[in-house]
Amino acid sequence: MVSFSLIAAAAASTLFTSALAGTAYLENNCAYPVWVLGSYSGTVTKIAAGGKYTEGLKPNFPASIKISKRVQKKDEFAEEITQFEYKVDDYLWYDTSFIDCADTNINTCPGWAGGVKISATKGNCKTGLHLPRGTDPTQAYFVPSDNDSVKSCDIHENKGDITMTLCNAKKAKKSLAGRFAYETEEWEEDREVHDE
Questions:
Q1: Domain ranges, ordered by start, for the chain
Q2: What is the CATH T-level fold of the domain 4-188, as seen in this structure?
Q3: What is the pLDDT of residue 6?
Q4: Does position 137 have pLDDT exceeding 50, yes or no?
Q5: Which of 71, 75, 67 is nearest to 101 (CA)?
Q6: Which residue in 69, 117, 128 sits closest to 93, CA to CA?
Q7: Torsions phi, psi for 40 (to 5 deg)
């Protein structure tokens, strides 16, 4: 026989989890497409220039959205990637990681040359701002010990959303056709990347 108290506890747990669940947003403001491996789905998704990727946050689950400039199979997302890392517990934690290309060719990290901003909502939340071609270990991971780059909201302010913007230093401008185009700086162009 199923206990009604267990059913009630399970329902309460589901409501608690839902109340905590915000959304992770990845905005690709770069002039090139990126390929994204989601934290939970194991699915590789192409995000066009100006496009967006989203996934729900899961409490007590260290997560990482892996981002590449080139087409990769899901088991190949280990090098030449930028990582959007986060965790929800009593706090909302998040950071930018360039570790997987910093020791080989930093230029292969999506967003590194164009800047990366990571921020959260619904609380007193810190913002990470990696400047174009920067190496500030307080704003992004370059080696595993760069723990000062981890940002968070105050305790119990863990119900908000997290947004990472790649190439955030680039300005968007509205074209005559009413569509948004993106200014491409010389430092942000990647002539080796082709839309496959």
A1: 4-188
A2: Thaumatin (2.60.110)
A3: 29
A4: yes
A5: 67
A6: 128
A7: -115, -35
